[in-house]
Amino acid sequence: DMSGTWKLRGMLRGDGSTPTITVAFINLTDASTTALATISSSSTVGAPVESGAITFASGTKSYGCKIKSDDATKYGYAYGLELVRTA
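Predicted structure:
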């Protein structure tokens, strides 16, 4: 049951040249290209970040996370991604 208020939380780190790393939480079942929530960071040492509230679609769905660097020649890491119930 995904009732209540949920957020995406994780730690993001770029490769040392400060690309912005973004993680998008997406609905895989409906093949939506619109993220339900995103977190971003330009940290080179790792920064904890938390999204705004997530609104889940009704019914049984599959969800996933997609990580992206804003610089195609740089890479990034996402650690400890989790959904956290806040209310």
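Summary: The mean pLDDT is 88.
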